[in-house]
Amino acid sequence: MANTAQARKRARQAVARNKHNSSLRSALRTAIKRVRQAVEAGDKAAAAEVFQKATSVIDRVADKNIIHKNKAARHKSRLASAIKGL
């Protein structure tokens, strides 16, 4: 348990930051999942449209250091190649 005022405040901040980062990470997973579902459905136009939105989400999460920039690049690359393979 936090003993000093500073430690108590940092604990509160950590809880708030965790909640915010978790929601962004969830949005990332959802965006990736939507692209995969469009690819599995075989609709290239819809997949490309969803991919554009997903790319924005992926970049935003990477800019905030919630995921590493290389992981973001890997996600975008694999999704793009999946769409190209349709």
From TrEMBL:
InterPro entries: Ribosomal_bS20, Ribosomal_bS20_sf. Residues 1-25 are annotated as: Disordered. One of its GO terms (cellular component) is ribosome. The keyword Transferase does not apply. The keyword Ribosomal protein applies. Coiled coil: none annotated. SUPFAM superfamilies: Ribosomal protein S20. Keywords: Ribonucleoprotein, Ribosomal protein, RNA-binding, rRNA-binding. Residues 7-22 have a biased composition (Basic residues). It comes from the Bacteria. Binds directly to 16S ribosomal RNA. Belongs to the bacterial ribosomal protein bS20 family. PANTHER family: 30S RIBOSOMAL PROTEIN S20, SMALL RIBOSOMAL SUBUNIT PROTEIN BS20C. This is Small ribosomal subunit protein bS20. It comes from Pigmentiphaga soli. The lineage of its organism: Bacteria, Pseudomonadati, Pseudomonadota, Betaproteobacteria, Burkholderiales.
